[in-house]
Design goal:
9 strands, alpha/beta, single chain, globular, Cytidine Deaminase, domain 2, nine-stranded mixed sheet, binds zinc ion
């Protein structure tokens, strides 16, 4: 008997994305996940208003290809840094080295936070970030996929006309500015 069920938000009509991530940040997530192979990688995404502005890698103290447990010290340090930067937790990230970016039975059983879970699949080494990343909400034993938008680097996370002054204060010490063209 399995309690694992999920619904796909992608089946619905066009709608506002639940999670927006720039391709630069998505690439950081992919790079960290690959660096941790063969084990699962984990970390957090922070930002403002559902936009993922920064990725924070954390240590997987399980050091296993089959699960993860975030290092508690890393978690506290990252959350404190987020607060100082005026950002909020946008998603919990972990990788699936050899399986699709779909929550496992354990992911569902161990999900205790009402935060989007972003899963990175490395099962296809040629997959782009847009293909490898999927976001989920897990509540009461049910995983529902959320809509995820990976934006090209050249565009801001939000329409400038809505003016979000908070974005100007984002720390970008680790941000690179790859001038590669957007992939479509
Ligand atoms: Zn998982």
């Amino acid at each position: 008997m399995s309690s694992v069920r999920w619904r796909c938000a992608r089946d619905g009509p066009t709608h506002v994305s639940d999670l927006v991530i720039s391709s630069a940040v998505a690439d950081e997530v992919m790079a960290h996940a690959r660096a941790e192979l063969p084990n699962e990688a984990c970390g957090l995404l922070s930002g403002i208003g559902g936009g993922a502005a920064r990725f924070h890698a954390a240590r997987n103290i399980e050091a296993s290809p089959f699960g993860f447990e975030m290092d508690a010290g890393d978690l506290l340090r990252i959350l404190a840094g987020m607060e100082r930067a005026g950002q909020e937790l946008v998603a919990i990230v972990h990788s699936h080295p050899r399986s699709p970016a779909v929550p496992s039975a354990r992911d569902i059983a161990e999900s205790h936070y009402p935060v989007i879970q972003l899963i990175v699949s490395l099962s296809d080494s040629r997959a782009t970030a847009r293909e490898a990343l999927r976001g989920w909400r897990i509540e009461d034993g049910i995983a529902s996929e959320v809509s995820l938008l990976v934006e090209p680097d050249q565009q801001p996370l939000a329409d400038r006309s809505t003016s979000e002054p908070a974005r100007a204060s984002m720390s970008s010490s680790t941000a690179q500015d790859p001038s590669s063209p957007p992939e479509r």
